[in-house]
């Protein structure tokens, strides 16, 4: 759709049209959702004392939408849920971001929001793991922790006075992400769940679904302070050139894991291009389907698998709607 | 030169005086942008891309209680009959950038996104008269696609007066005839005018007729744009699922 430029042959086009038509029929059967565009009137019963939420405004006594989206009603609150908008943060969200700038005592991260997020030095664990006051030396050594263009996983701690986000990365599972790929998808495709960190055992791959639409797919690394302390002990013992080779040999990502990473990443890209919601189950299903159909990793973004994925999604939704009924 | 045939009443391209050219809008043409749209009015084709709201690049220009709206208008080298030497930076482009920025800023709810910046980039791919109007219509579609809250749909259309007839939606030949060219931009539902430009001279009563004709053209464009946006929203929601 948006990102993929596909050349479908005639049969594929026909199959795709049929599958999309079935999706639309299912959606209209489910009903309940009403789409609005900008300046559409939202039907509201005026005596109820309706609360006007996000995406609405008042015009001549009528409630009017200011966004293109879907009208949601929760008790007395009426609001418009926008689809392709930027990320809407909430305290406690797990997000993945990229370091843009190192400022005094903080890092600035780019997340998919209207302003850059701030990760304070004091909200980050020091490499030696000790809890102490951050000194001027720590401030000068910030670059050894994160540099520009590093990918970082953190949690939203709160909002600053100017509306930008305040992050914290104190736990072991947060911090710098290495050996993997960062993917950008529209933020509305990632729903808030209890678990955002997923370890896919059969692939040895870590999958982090950031609420801001940044998805990390990487090699599974054992979390723990053991690793960091071991590395530091080894460093003074071996000489520099030897150490580099040894490190590379010890920490070389095997080819099979790399292939799994690419397969999962392509599954995420495909689902995002189609506009389907991203869940661990759907991503793993797509990757497994591609493996079982013997589709090469590079062909996963091709027309044939594209059409197959739409057809599988249609079947899945039909099953789901039958279960509900 | 007879821009309106006295016998049949047709214009040079076969339209009636109060007929617009064929319009077409498509959303999502630039993959990396937050919102993008392609808008065609007859042979005039325009692409708009919107980035934002995002962090302000130039801290000196940051506004504390609202978003900063920036707009750049450019014409591709190949958009006009003779190859253009300077796609941006000449006076006409600067003026049109300012006009589009003021028009869109009036309808974006900037107070909802303080300390941020919204960039609108508009580029003309094919110029056949009415590029200003096509740019505003494309920018509206792109802003809606990016999920930026707006008061209302802004649409724009142009009208002129040749051979004693008000003509709607001038193309390049009619525009270069030297007659008056009125460009109107309105907020469709609120029925308010946000842009009104004219070159050359017109008597007051004829001006009212021409402006009224342009406003009707704007309303027709607004009707079409609303349908395109609704269709697109329904499609996204249907794909997304439960």
TrEMBL record, chain A:
Q: Keyword RNA-binding on this protein?
A: yes
Q: Residue ranges under compositional bias (Basic and acidic residues)?
A: 228-248
In what residue span(s) does the S1 motif domain sit? 90-170
Keyword RNA-binding among record annotations: yes
| SMART domains the UniProt entry points to | S1 (SM00316)
* InterPro entries hit by this protein: Exosome_RNA_bind1/RRP40/RRP4 (IPR026699), KH_dom_type_1 (IPR004088), KH_dom_type_1_sf (IPR036612), NA-bd_OB-fold (IPR012340), S1_domain (IPR003029), S1_RRP4 (IPR048565)
Any idea which GO molecular function terms this record carries?
RNA binding
Query: Which GO cellular component terms are attached?
Result: cytoplasmic exosome (RNase complex); nuclear exosome (RNase complex)
Signal peptide limits: none
The alphabetized list of GO BP terms reads: CUT catabolic process; exonucleolytic trimming to generate mature 3'-end of 5.8S rRNA from tricistronic rRNA transcript (SSU-rRNA, 5.8S rRNA, LSU-rRNA); nuclear polyadenylation-dependent rRNA catabolic process; poly(A)-dependent snoRNA 3'-end processing; TRAMP-dependent tRNA surveillance pathway; U4 snRNA 3'-end processing
Instruction: Please report a single Pfam family linked to this protein.
Output: S1_RRP4
Under the heading SUPFAM superfamilies, the entry gives: Eukaryotic type KH-domain (KH-domain type I), Nucleic acid-binding proteins, Ribosomal L27 protein-like
Gene3D superfamilies reported for this sequence: 2.40.50.100, Nucleic acid-binding proteins
Q: Where in the cell is it found?
A: Nucleus
Q: Which UniProt key words apply to this protein?
A: Exosome, Nucleus, RNA-binding, rRNA processing
| Protein family according to the UniProt entry | Belongs to the RRP4 family.
Output this protein's name. Exosome complex component Rrp4 homolog
Q: Which organism is it from?
A: Elaeis guineensis var. tenera
Taxonomic classification:
Eukaryota, Viridiplantae, Streptophyta, Embryophyta, Tracheophyta
Automatic annotation (TrEMBL), chain B:
Family affiliation: Belongs to the RNase PH family.
What the entry lists under CDD domains is as follows:
RNase_PH_RRP41
The gene name reads: LOC105039677
In its UniProt record, a GO molecular function of this protein is: RNA binding
Its chief place of residence is: cytoplasm
* Protein name according to UniProt: Exosome complex component RRP41 homolog isoform X1
**Pfam hit, one:** RNase_PH
Which GO biological-process labels does this protein carry? nuclear mRNA surveillance; poly(A)-dependent snoRNA 3'-end processing; rRNA catabolic process; U4 snRNA 3'-end processing
Coiled-coil spans are none
Tell me which InterPro entries the record gives. ExoRNase_PH_dom1, ExoRNase_PH_dom2, ExoRNase_PH_dom2_sf, PNPase/RNase_PH_dom_sf, Ribosomal_Su5_D2-typ_SF, RNase_PH
Query: Where is this protein localized, as stated in its record?
Result: Cytoplasm; Nucleus, Nucleolus
SUPFAM superfamilies reported in the protein's UniProt record: Ribonuclease PH domain 2-like, Ribosomal protein S5 domain 2-like
Q: Which residues form the Exoribonuclease phosphorolytic domain?
A: 19-149, 152-217
Keywords on record = Cytoplasm, Exosome
User: Cellular component terms, GO, for this chain's entry?
Assistant: cytoplasmic exosome (RNase complex); nuclear exosome (RNase complex); nucleolus
């Amino acid at each position: 759709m948006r990102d993929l430029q596909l050349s479908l042959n005639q049969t594929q086009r026909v199959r795709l049209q049929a599958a999309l038509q079935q999706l639309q029929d299912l959606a209209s059967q489910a009903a309940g959702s009403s789409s609005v565009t900008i300046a559409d009137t939202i039907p509201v019963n005026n005596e109820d004392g309706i609360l006007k939420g996000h995406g609405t405004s008042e015009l001549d006594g009528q409630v009017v939408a200011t966004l293109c989206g879907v009208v949601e009603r929760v008790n007395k609150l009426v609001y418009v849920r926008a689809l392709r908008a930027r990320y809407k943060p909430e305290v406690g969200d797990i997000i993945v971001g990229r370091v843009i700038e190192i400022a005094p005592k903080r890092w600035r991260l780019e997340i998919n929001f209207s302003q850059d997020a701030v990760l304070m030095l004091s909200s980050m664990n020091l490499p030696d793991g000790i809890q102490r006051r951050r000194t001027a030396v720590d401030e000068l050594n910030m670059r050894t922790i994160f540099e520009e263009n590093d990918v970082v996983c953190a949690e939203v701690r709160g909002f600053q006075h100017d509306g930008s986000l305040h992050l914290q990365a104190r736990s072991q599972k947060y911090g710098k992400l290495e050996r993997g790929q960062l993917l950008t998808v529209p933020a509305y495709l990632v729903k808030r769940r209890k678990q955002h960190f997923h370890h896919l055992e059969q692939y040895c791959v870590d999958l982090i679904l950031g609420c801001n639409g940044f998805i990390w797919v990487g090699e599974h690394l054992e979390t723990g302070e053991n690793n960091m302390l071991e590395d530091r002990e080894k460093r003074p013992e071996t000489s520099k050139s030897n150490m580099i080779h040894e490190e590379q040999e010890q920490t070389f990502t095997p080819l099979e894991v790399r292939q799994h990473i690419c397969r999962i990443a392509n599954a995420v890209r495909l689902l995002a291009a189609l506009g389907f919601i991203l869940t661990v189950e759907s991503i793993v299903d797509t990757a497994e389907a591609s493996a079982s159909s013997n589709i090469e990793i590079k062909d996963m973004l091709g027309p044939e698998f594209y059409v197959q994925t739409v057809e599988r999604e249609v079947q899945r939704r039909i099953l789901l709607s039958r279960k509900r009924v | 030169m007879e821009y309106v045939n006295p016998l049949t009443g047709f214009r040079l391209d076969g339209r009636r005086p109060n007929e617009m050219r064929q319009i077409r809008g498509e959303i999502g043409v630039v993959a990396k942008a937050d919102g993008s749209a392609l808008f065609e009015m007859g042979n005039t084709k325009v692409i708009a891309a919107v980035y934002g709201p995002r962090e302000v690049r130039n801290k000196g220009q940051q506004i504390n209680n609202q978003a900063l709206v920036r707009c750049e208008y450019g014409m591709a080298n190949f958009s006009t009959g003779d190859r253009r030497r300077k796609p941006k930076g000449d006076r006409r482009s600067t003026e049109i950038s300012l006009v589009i920025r003021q028009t869109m800023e009036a309808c974006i709810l900037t107070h909802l996104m303080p300390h941020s910046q919204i960039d609108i980039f508009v580029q003309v791919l094919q110029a056949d008269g009415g590029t200003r109007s096509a740019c505003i219509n494309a920018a509206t579609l792109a802003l809606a696609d990016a999920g930026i809250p707006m008061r209302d749909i802004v649409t724009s259309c142009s009208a002129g007066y040749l051979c004693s007839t008000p003509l709607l939606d001038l193309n390049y030949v009619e525009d270069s005839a030297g007659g008056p060219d009125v460009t109107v931009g309105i907020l469709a539902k609120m029925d308010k005018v946000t842009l009104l430009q004219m070159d050359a001279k017109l008597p007051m009563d004829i001006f009212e007729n021409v402006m009224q004709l342009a406003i009707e053209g704007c309303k027709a464009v607004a009707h079409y744009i609303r349908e395109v946006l609704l269709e697109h929203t329904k499609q996204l929601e249907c794909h997304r699922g439960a």
